[in-house]
Design a protein that fits this description.
The structure is a single chain. The chain has 72 residues and is α+β, with helices and mostly antiparallel strands. The chain is built from 1 helix and 3 strands, in the order βαββ. The chain has one domain. The protein is globular and about 35 Å long.
Amino acid sequence: MPLLFHWRGKNYRADMRNRDAYTYNLNQNSPTMLKAKPGDTIWAFTRRKDRVYVLAVRGIVQKYCKNNPGFK
């Protein structure tokens, strides 16, 4: 199932500074994202500093796990 995700610009920029080359870890509390399964495609868009919306990532779900209660 393809999913569309809005990556807040501030979070996107911080995540890009603090990531490995081709690895993304998406932590979400969205009920829709709980439906993601390995092999599903996630399209993420964000807004640049000039307020233009752009496609940030097309990703394939590799694995799925739930965070512990209270995870921030």
